[in-house]
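Predict structure. Chain length: 805.
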Amino acid sequence: MAMELLRSNLSRVRIPEPTNRIYKHECCVSFDTPRSEGGLFIDLTTFLAFGKEFVQWNYEKTGNPVYLHIKDTKKLVPEDRPTKKPTLLAIGIDGGFDNNEPEYEESFSIVVLPNYVTLPFPSVELPEKVRLAVDAIRASEGAERKEQIAAWVADKKQISAYAENLQQVDNGVVIPPTGWKCTKCDKTENLWLNLTDGTILCGRRNWDGTGGNNHAIEYYKETGYPLAVKLGTITTDLEGADVFSYPEDESVEDPLLAQHLAFFGIDFTSLQKTEMTTAERELDQNTNFDWNRIQESGEEVEPLFGPGYTGLVNLGNSCYMAATMQVVFSTQSFCSRYYSNQSLKMAYERAPADPTVDLNMQLTKLAHGLLSGKYSIPTKEAGDMDNANRSKQEGIRPRMFKSVIAANHPEFSTMRQQDALEFFLYFLDHVERSNGGNVELDPSRSFKFGIEDRISCPSGKVAYNKRLDYILSLNVPLHQATNKEELQAFQKFKSEKVSAGAEISTDEIVRPRVPLEACLANFSAPEEVLDFYSTALKSKTTAIKTTGLTTFPDYLVLHMRKFVMEEGWVPKKLDVYIDVPDTIDISHMRSKGLQPGEELLPEVAENEADPMKLMANEDIVAQLVSMGFNYIPCQKAAIRTSNAGVEEAMNWLLSHMDDADIDIPDSAITEAASSNIDQSAIDTLVSFGFQEEVARKALKESGGDIEKATDWIFSNPNASASSNDDTMTSESTGNASNAILSDGGGRYRLKGFVSHIGTSTHCGHYVAHIFKEGKWVIFNDDKVGASVNPPKDMGYLYFFERLSS
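Prediction complete.
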């Protein structure tokens, strides 16, 4: 009977081909594995895997009835098992490091749904097609495993044949330490520095249109210049830099890279010497101390289990992602969106045919994995199935989430360490996009807020510039340290020790202590803007700029700028503690916009941008051009911001880089603006639900392109029918922008923080501490426990939750 049922469904059984992705290590909608109580069911049509609780959903959605059931049972292993010597720089694969995980015995069977009719495997009675399909699945590496191995195992780079005799062109190019941009387009990521002439160009375009615009490889075809290094991968360890040889068509080693980079003003000799003589030596002395503090090593940390206390297994330098996601999913907005208000079944039913590539599905899976408590249970030692090991948990492996969130990112898709801040911003951007502009659903909105710069010139008139952000990035004013006397005494003591040739012990070191209040005050303190062009005075002058927040978000994220870039590309980490209180009040930082009695500076209309009347500050333009931007957009940015400064012009540039007329001189813009817009394009946008005036303005800003116009509308939520074609008043802009943002009082409580130890944000280790249920909890990858002494003064990112009034 069972065999007849199987034979009647043979048409739904496929034999996997080498190109098929086969999932056999983890459920697509949960973190169930073959080691879970119900095992894992592999769909023999799609080769997707499902846990016992979820395979019925797949049957109901697809009608696919035949599954391979895999169940792993733990083996008893002798305690004196010898340790194998690794031959590969890898973990958990043949030849890699032995992580001493217990061994399991696999069992297989064929299951036919909906009644779970089971047939044993192996069996000669099974149809040949089924046997071939199962054999192919068993022999395959598995999609999850392939990705893991590909990320860990890398061939030894060969020395490029073009490195030793590389001819470099002296054209006066000096590469700045930050702010790079492709010289042929507006790309600011995936940039490559040609080592022959110093040209910065974007990388290759991905199959789906993302990535670069192929300008780097096209430049090689034009010039024949063979080597390029990827900007952002250059550190003090030059062997880690990503050097690509176009004629050899592979990543290579350049033994003369330091010399080739120095040709363009990147001085790694001084970097190495500086690190070895001062910061590096001092940091070496402190590393163990800092490492122990942020991880609370040596403390009797009580392990915690249950809902909200699930660890994330390190996939290989993935602690930046683990620490960030733990804090993010401790917030009410993300908990509600992907856990309380969306079940796994709802997410699966809405997902495409392959749920492993759906961000909404994988975020819901991650949320349920972290918050349900299902996977936060004590591990059981081999041979002792009755007694649980209360010191650890297995945690969950967020492989599918990382795969989908980082699919098209050149750095996050690797196993290299990354900056937690960069990942946080990248993550929120993707969440916002995945929610399609639906502000009711979008949880990233709880982090977004408005920032306003108020510029006052001697004429008595003012200007307001607005922007949106997810984080408040704060400089650390070392001169406001509260322990200056102790620092002075330590410097004297240190000089005496150095003169005597003695070492300074860890417990003797004194670091500056700067209050968080000083960092916040520094952010909003008045500052002078030199060479500000006043449209009221028709001349350059010195203005005063103050900065405030137009809205207070549900969750305020503070980024401490502990890493600064000094001259000669020398990175320096500020060796400082930040005294952070449990609650803060930033009510005084609210910007109120145009006040009664204030008069706005006359706006610079595009058709009045006469070079004789308003000249761009060439110092501002030159600095922007040195970052890789084109000259005309830099001129526009300086003029549109009334020469307020490089930062203001940069913000304007970044928010207008997609404008269709960004590279067109103002006179040409005026002519183009007078041309008629295709009424059919307006009608199309109106049919999408947009107001006609907004559609007309969007098409004008986007050169008539409907797709770009749609993007422009979503990128400019402050656009409204009441705005005229050219400008909006500061007040109306603020009101429209703020309408989509959460807002409330200015009192906040510290919810969590992410700490970092290492010389750079791209190396070292990240740990999260979160305040849960009246106590501080440490999340150190898969280790979760009650924090004894949370190092609140060592945070890199601080997450504050707004208090109800």
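Summary: The chain has a mean pLDDT of 81.
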